[in-house]
Amino acid sequence: MRDDLPRARKRLGQHFLTDPRILARIADALELTGTETVVEIGPGRGALTEHLLDRAKRVVAVELDRDLVPYLREKFAGRALEVVEGDVLARPLAALAGGEEFALAGNVPYYITTPILFHALAPPRASRAVYLVQREVAERVVAPAGAEEYGALSVNVQALATPRLMFRVPAGAFSPPPKVESAVLRVDPRAHPAIDGSKEREFRELVQAAFGLRRKQMRRVVRTIGGTSAERADELLRAAAIDPEARPETLTVEQFAALSRAMKDVRVRG
């Protein structure tokens, strides 16, 4: 490693991707046309930033590490890059893009992957997003109903977006190498989300509570989280076209959405 390069900070979960071929593939996964603004989360030393600048109209990079901010500004002086110092979770992404339509990219620290995914899905949403995340997280996000990895994260993301695992990235492509494998995840907002935006909180509470009882039959799940009788639980499940003997891990996103609508007047108990 060159002595003049900023070093990764363990407390910030920094692992800098250094493989130029993988960096190019990540930028290509956004399918930029040269007319877009890209918001980049955690640009680090600017390795991915370089590829994004070659493909986008402009890039707004949000960096928490204050030592990297002047480094990035100097490195890309004269380029169409704005470097914003701070926590991306504390800022509306659309505001960072100046109200323009925007795409989203980032090498996301593993410890805040889930909060960032949902922060990015809050409207107004990016037209598309590409993340470098822990492989296991990517597999959970894209898992279909019935898969071992299928859970609350799968349902809550897929209710709002269509995620795709694009390709895997070995630990050796990073400096320093992480202890886990990574993957590139693309997330495209659904034109017609499975749930109404005003009901997202209730939906997530229902899904989280249901997967807390993932081995139980749905009749027992609804009775437990809704505090209802068995008869009332069966009525709610029939209204959502769900078999009372099914288990949460077998329900599709659309079935969870239907159950959420059927239980609109029932307070979920986590």
If you had to describe this structure to a student in words, what would you say it looks like?
This protein has 270 residues and is an alpha/beta fold. It has two domains: 10-189, 3-Layer(aba) Sandwich (Rossmann fold); 197-262, Helicase, Ruva Protein, domain 3 (Orthogonal Bundle). It has helices at residues 20-29, 47-55, 68-75, 93-96, 113-120, 135-142, 152-158, 200-211, 218-226, 230-239, 253-262, and strands at residues 16-17, 37-41, 58-63, 81-85, 102-107, 129-134, 161-169, 174-175, 182-189. The strands form two sheets. It has a seven-stranded mixed beta sheet with strand order 4-3-2-5-6-9-7. A two-stranded antiparallel ribbon has the order 1-8. Helix 1 packs across helix 2 (47-55). The chain is elongated and about 70 Å long. It starts with 15 loop residues before the first strand and ends in an 8-residue tail after the last helix. 42% of the residues are buried. The model has no long low-confidence stretch (mean pLDDT 92).
Summarize this entry quickly.
The chain is of the alpha/beta class and 270 residues long. Helices cover 35% and strands 18% of the residues.
SSE succession: EHEHEHEHEHEHHEEEHHHH
Could you tell me how far the N terminus lies from the C terminus, measured between alpha carbons in angstroms?
A: 49 Å
How many beta-strand elements?
Answer: 9
CATH architecture title of the largest domain: 3-Layer(aba) Sandwich
Provide the spatial order of strands within the biggest beta sheet: 4-3-2-5-6-9-7
Q: What is the percent of helical residues?
A: 25-40%
Largest sheet, in brief, is: 7 strands, mixed
Instruction: Count every helix, treating DSSP H or I runs of 4 or more residues as helices.
Output: 11
Number of domains: 2
Oligomer: single chain
Helix/strand class: alpha/beta
Q: Shape from CA axes? A: elongated
